[in-house]
Amino acid sequence: MDITKIHSFFGSWSHQVSKLPVYCLLILLSACSSTPQQSTEPYQAQENYIEQLLKQASTAPALEATELRLKASREFLNQKQYAESLRLLNQITPEQLTTDTVKAQYLLIKSIDLVQLEIDTAMGWLEQMSSDYLALLSEDDQWLWQLHYATELNRQQRTNEALSLLEFQRPVLNEIESRELSHFIWQMLEAISPEQLSESLLTSDQPVNTGWLQLALILNSETAEKFKGLAFNRWNQQYPNHPANLQLPIQATSLPVETATRIEKIALLLPLQGKFANVGKAISQGFIMAAYQLDLDIRPEIQIIDSLEGDFLATYNNIEADLIIGPLSPKHIETLEQLPNLPIPTIALNSTESEQLPVNFFYMNLQAEDEATTMARYAAKNNYKKGAILTYNSKKGQKLAQTFKTAFEQEQGSIAQIQGYETNWATSLQRALEIDKSDNRARNLSRLLRSPIEYTARRRNDIQFIYSPLKYKDLRQTNPLMAFFFADDIDVLSNSDISAQLYKGKRDKDLEGVIFSDFRWSPQDLGIQSLPTKAENSAKLYSWGADAFQMAIQFSDLITMHNHPMKAFGSNIYFDGTSRFIREFPVSYVRYGKPYETTPPNIEVN
């Protein structure tokens, strides 16, 4: 049931309900521990009452027996004995529901039992409650059904629908009742993961829903209280009249009051001499260009510091800033990792293998690794379940393979094999497709028969894709081989190394069907016509610097609303909830030798 149908459905009967009784919300919040129909007798007396109802039902006429069993089932529900309530309902057949009033009660009790027991069929039963049946229930029971319907929508990851359903009724509530509704919504949002909150936020098209989801992400994050306080203050400025303010949870009211709303001083700690001087300078220039391209009320003060000038740790400890971007060197990163606590939030521009990182230590991987993560998430979102990897035997190639594998497995996917480069790409691809095993079986059979045999080599059929983060010239060799080995139904995923060639306008049919992380950044994005001639090959580094600036000025928002992407110049950036900032890139595919930005057509995933 979509939002339009929900509004239409409730609009047909909401005029009958003037307001939501406060105690009805409290009923649900205490898991239906009391309802207007609940007996006020002691617990033992209630058990006796249920026994009496069931005893009467055993000898009563069919219709009366059904109503008595419904009453007994309702009493079990009131006592939070949902399994017992459901057991009684299962003894009632549809033929015994001879009146609409009886059927409405039956649907109400059964749907609540199923929701409370988290049984998958709950939504089906909830949606059998038509507006005609709902109108036969008391006002209290109508609201009780509605709240359980919202609870089940939320459990099925339809959080925006649940929020819209509840907020639709807020205009008829008084202030006290509206507070209770806000309290219920908080309990509902606390029951779901940050990942579900983030997914819901991405699809939210209602400002009130967006406000709920943003605040829930802020309060559920595991970041420092100071940054939560900053983010909460910004949220309050954006949503001063949001219904969440009627009943804020204790974790919001206990946040420290932080008056600073922006990063005012940023230090870039990068190599400006030696082997990686060109890298440090390109990142710094991209960072500065972005600072002057964006329309900001107050531009942060930027200080560029050479990480190779003098003793690194002494240089680091003398920095006065709100945020440090860098270092780049693995050796310098390792030095910081050994400290128990960093005095200033620091975002290293390289990966780390350490599992124990100091407070205030954050990092962003090299672009190639983030592209691997992008493609792994793409594969998972498009229902790929199992794949293989074909890569270089170099340290970088194996690192990309492991990055993809880790990210894909985190999304419940699996990698059957990681195949490195051998004597040539044809041999390597044969091993990845396990064609060599088919050849070996044929040779063994021929040896046993002592006669040559005719056969067609068979390749593996348990994978849906091959991830090949190869250079342009190498991918042009391996991709046509997929058809040669009768494996053109296996999709090829790759990285952005093919982007530059494809966007030069030349059609390249050797890359037909390849799905790749697309890097389309250009100097014009920063308001300049072109990069210096010597820097043309550093476009990714300039883009990295530009994205790092946007990440810096929205630092506290990113770490408090993790997994929710922020649009930057060359990518979307999000925080993974631990210590890592990830750049996520667009995904394109090659058709008729040209790149297209949309999802590939006719992808068949087994």
TrEMBL record:
Entries under Gene3D superfamilies matching the protein: 1.25.40.650, 3.40.50.2300
Keyword Membrane: yes
Swiss-Prot/TrEMBL keywords: Membrane
Protein name per its UniProtKB record: Penicillin-binding protein activator
GO biological process: one example: peptidoglycan biosynthetic process
Cellular component terms per the entry's GO annotation: periplasmic side of cell outer membrane
PANTHER family hit by this protein: PENICILLIN-BINDING PROTEIN ACTIVATOR LPOA
CDD domains: PBP1_YraM_LppC_lipoprotein-like
Molecular function via GO: enzyme regulator activity
